[in-house]
Amino acid sequence: MKKQILCATTACALSLLVACAPQTEQPKESQLLKYEDKITEIISQMTLEEKVNMLHGKNMFSSAGVERLGIPDIEYADGPFGIREEMEPHSWNSLGLANDSATFFPTGSALAATWSEEMAYEYGKGMAKEARLRGKDMILGPAINIQRIPTGGRTYEYLSEDPQLSAALSVKYTQGVQDNGVAVCLKHYALNNQENDRGSIDVKVSERAMHELYLPPFEAAVREADAYGVMAAYNKVEGYWCSENDLLLNKILRDMWGFHGIVISDWGGVHSTVGAAMNGLDVEMPGNQYMGEALLDSVKAGVVPESVIDSKVRNLLRVRLAIQPIPKEEANKVMTAQPEQRDIAYRVASKSIVLLKNEGELLPILPGKYKKIAVIGDNAIREQAQGGVGAGVKALNEITPLEGIQSKLQGVEIKWAQGYRNFTREDRYKRISPYQEADKKLMAEAVQLAKESDLVIFIAGNNREVETEGSDRVSITLPMGQDELAKALAEANPNLVTVLVSGAPTDLRVVKEVSPAILVSWFNGSEGGNALADVLSGTISPSGKLPFTYPVKLEDNQAYSLNVYPQITEEEREDIFVNLVNRKDARERKSPTAEYSEGIFVGYRWFENKQIPVAYPFGHGLSYTTFEYADLQLTPVTEGFEVSLQISNTGQFDAEEVVQLYIGRPDSKVERPMKELKAFQRVALKAGESKTVRILVPKDRLRHWDETTHGWAIEAGKADVYVGSSSQDIRLNGSIEI
Ligand code: GLC
Question: Which residues are part of the catalytic machinery?
Answer without folding.
Answer: 266
